[in-house]
Specification:
Layout: H1 27-33, E1 43-46, E2 56-64, E3 70-78, E4 87-89, E5 98-104, E6 110-119, E7 124-126, E8 130-133, E9 147-155, E10 161-172, E11 179-183, E12 191-197, E13 202-206, E14 210-214, E15 218-228, E16 231-236, E17 238-243, E18 249-258, E19 261-272
Antiparallel strand pairs: 1-2, 2-5, 3-4, 3-6, 6-7, 6-8, 9-10, 9-19, 10-11, 11-12, 12-13, 13-17, 14-15, 15-16, 15-18, 17-18, 18-19
Length: 273
């Protein structure tokens, strides 16, 4: 594993990067807590889903407010018509008694969707259920990317290899035609997601990917770096990896970033085994 040493950033202008994930209560629990007057619930209408592709769809709903304050609105969707297993999308922004959201879906799958509106005093109102079926995803083109690699990390501040070579594996992310799962970057044992551009022959990794969890500093992220005139000037939201026809891969400069600073600055080279 790495020789850990926190670098309190060399970068003078840092982006304000944050992400959050809200876990909603079970809808039955919410209903039980709000047992006001059901007659005052809004009437919720869901539109026919639009922009349906192999991986996403747009859903929209509106409601007539019977007078109670609206606290939250969103969508519940499932592959199960009885909604025994659900996904919940709760947009933070809704106005004029309307809400719209994009659903992330699997290909060749039938989904059932309903909108919900949470009131302050009278419980939750639901729309009727609509359904949609996603198309078959395009075929993953550069399948030679899949397999085992030997990886090395080069410290860009010294130009020297850091640590010993280590193993990395790449495979398709489910049925996604352009996403891959990359396991063990930086030797951290974690799996991150990359999006492949077959024309440019690149793999893009978003900054929210966790490559290691430190016992003291918490999540360690793969942050891209912007370099100008040989100087580190900023973080980027993405790290870009370039690959050739043999599947050999080179990651552009990136930082092993935790909230307290950076463990180091690297380029990573992967050679197909």
């Amino acid at each position: 594993m790495k020789n850990f040493k926190i670098y309190f950033t060399l970068i003078t202008a840092l982006m304000a990067l944050s992400c959050c994930s809200d876990i909603m209560d079970d809808k039955a629990d919410i209903d039980a807590k709000h047992t006001g007057n059901p007659a005052l619930l809004p009437t919720v209408t869901i539109a026919t889903p639009s922009n349906v592709t192999y991986e996403s769809a747009t859903v929209a709903a509106s409601w007539s407010n019977a007078g109670d304050e609206i606290m939250e609105a969103g969508f519940i969707y499932s592959t199960d018509e009885a909604f025994n297993s659900i996904n919940v999308v709760s947009p933070s922004d809704f106005k004029n008694s309307q809400v719209t959201s994009a659903l992330k879906l699997d290909s060749e799958t039938k989904y059932f969707v309903k909108a919900y509106v949470q009131t302050r005093s009278n419980g939750v109102a639901y729309s009727d259920v609509v359904s949609l079926t996603t198309a078959k995803a395009p075929v993953f083109i550069d399948t030679y990317l899949f397999g085992n690699y030997e990886a090395i990390d080069i410290d860009i501040t010294t130009g020297e290899q850091e640590g010993d070579p280590y193993d990395v594996t790449i495979k398709q992310d489910g049925s996604a035609y352009n996403r891959v799962l990359i396991s063990n970057i930086w030797g951290g044992g974690r799996t991150i997601v990359g999006v492949v551009d077959f024309v440019k022959k690149t793999i893009t990794v978003d900054y929210t990917n966790v490559i290691y969890v430190h016992s003291s500093y918490g999540n360690c992220y793969m942050y891209g770096l912007l370099i100008e005139g040989g100087e580190l000037v900023d973080y980027a939201r993405e790290t870009i990896a370039y690959y050739d026809d043999k599947g050999n891969i080179e990651f552009s400069p990136w930082a092993a970033h935790v909230s307290a600073g950076d463990f180091g600055y690297y380029v990573t080279l992967l050679e197909k085994k």
